[in-house]
Amino acid sequence: MDSSQETLNSGAPKILVIGVGGAGGNTVHRMNFLGIDGSCGLVAVNTDKQQLGVISDDLIKVLIGKSITQGMGTKGDITKGIKAAETSRASFGKILEGINFLFLTGGMGGGTSTGTLPIIADVAKQQGALVCSIVTFPFDLERSKMLKAEDGIVELSEKSDTTVVINNNRLAELVPGLPVADAFKVIDELIAKTVKGITESLTQPSLVSLNFADVKSALSNNGVGLLAFGESREPTDRIGDVVQDVLNNTLLDADISEAKGAVLNITGGSDLTLNEAKSIGELIMQRISPEATVTWGARVRENFEGKVEVIAVFSGVPSPYRAGRFEREAGKSSSGASKYAIRGLDGKLKKGIIEV
Ligand SMILES: Nc1nc2c(ncn2[C@@H]2O[C@H](COP(=O)(O)OP(=O)(O)OP(=O)(O)O)[C@@H](O)[C@H]2O)c(=O)[nH]1
Ligand SMILES: [Mg+2]
Q1: Is the CB of 22 under 6 A from ligand 1?
Q2: Of the four, 72, 99, 225, 244, which is 20 to 30 A from 335 by CA?
Q3: Nearest CA owner, ligand 1 atom 17
Q4: Looking at ligand 1, which atom is closest to the CA of residue 137?
Q5: Ligand 1 atom closest to Cα of 168?
Q6: Domain coordinates of the chain in residue numbers?
Q7: What is the CATH number that goes with domain 221-329?
């Protein structure tokens, strides 16, 4: 029996999140701060020792490529990022042992993230994990990083099951005038919420639980994906309202009508009904291809009374990055807008920085 069958039989999948580079490290740091119920390991991987030092010691922190960067980061050099990761393949293999579902995150364009993410994805896939990468595309003002990021996304999407791209520039449209540091915080929080929502719906008792086999069908071998966030603002038609908000989401860079799959995560208060959750799923399903695999989970949270929030991961959308050149103008612009059980490298619980 392979490990994925074992997990399906015994219930919840083993989930791990690895944040790579400065951005990825900050994202997993934020996840740790938000807290995820259930067992989900959080790991930060970097070539920069100082950056690992400033994020929470609750995380497993893995310093790679010390002989290549002397622990000082790659300073944008993807070749160094690749070398650091290549020499750490075996360590990644150990970290990923027994993992069924891997979330990878980082800021594309950085030397560490762009070089390392595809290699971790490759190791994870070879070991049988479902790999969902959630990465950012740099701001227009980070010109030197944009071409590297485009190539990186193409490479990463070949190694991952789904590579969700969040375009920082769409965020700038969504909240004009937002200082960059605050924009990063918003993105980190959005990624953190997405991973938390999916993980908890997979592993915790929920109004509607997500089934790992369904999530697998929705995300497997599906290229580039997009993330959309929606919240209800009107009390009268909150279901129609939240669905419209998801579909109008400015973070969407491509047409979702051709998406091959979608995983929806619905959060509401104790007033959220099963029928409402179903309607949200059905309404979004109507907007994408009838062949698409759509699955949803719904959870009830405190302080959500009267509100509904949806985070949607769409997979297999036509990629504006496919040719290695981002068709920037093609993007849509719209008005709407536990403690972690982590095994260390030697199988014991370890916290703090590990050098590999
Ligand atoms: N979401 C988020 N994105 C960030 C953050 N910091 C930087 N970024 C974005 O991520 C991209 C990559 O930057 P880093 O993460 O610093 O790069 P790195 O992977 O550490 O690579 P090197 O430092 O070049 O070795 C940047 O171009 C920014 O667009 C952050 O705190 N959060
Ligand atoms: Mg860095």
Answers
A1: yes
A2: 225
A3: 110
A4: 29
A5: 29
A6: 12-205+339-355, 221-329
A7: 3.30.1330.20
Ligand of minimum distance to the alpha carbon of 20: 1
Whether ligand 1 lies within 6 angstroms of the CB of 26 is answered as: yes
Residue 47 CA to ligand 2 center (angstroms) comes to 7
Q: For residue 107, which atom of ligand 1 is closest to its CA? A: 10
Amino acid at 146: M
From residue 250, alpha-carbon distances to 131, 157, 172 in Å are 25, 22, 9
- Chain length of the chain: 356
CA distances (Å), origin 147, targets 49, 50, 160: 26, 27, 20
Q: What is the pLDDT along the chain (356 residues), one digit of tens a residue?
A: 344 433 333 468 999 999 999 999 999 999 998 888 766 899 999 999 999 999 999 999 999 999 999 999 999 999 999 999 999 999 999 999 999 999 999 999 999 999 999 999 999 999 999 999 999 999 888 888 888 999 999 999 999 999 999 988 877 777 778 888 888 888 888 999 999 999 999 998 899 999 999 999 999 999 999 998 899 977 788 999 999 988 887 667 677 888 999 999 999 999 999 999 999 999 999 988 888 999 999 999 988 999 999 999 999 988 777 554 555 443 433 222 222 222 223 333 345 677 77
Q: How far away, in angstroms, is 23 Cα from ligand 2 center?
A: 8
SS3 of 215-230: the string is HHHHHCCCCEEEEEEE
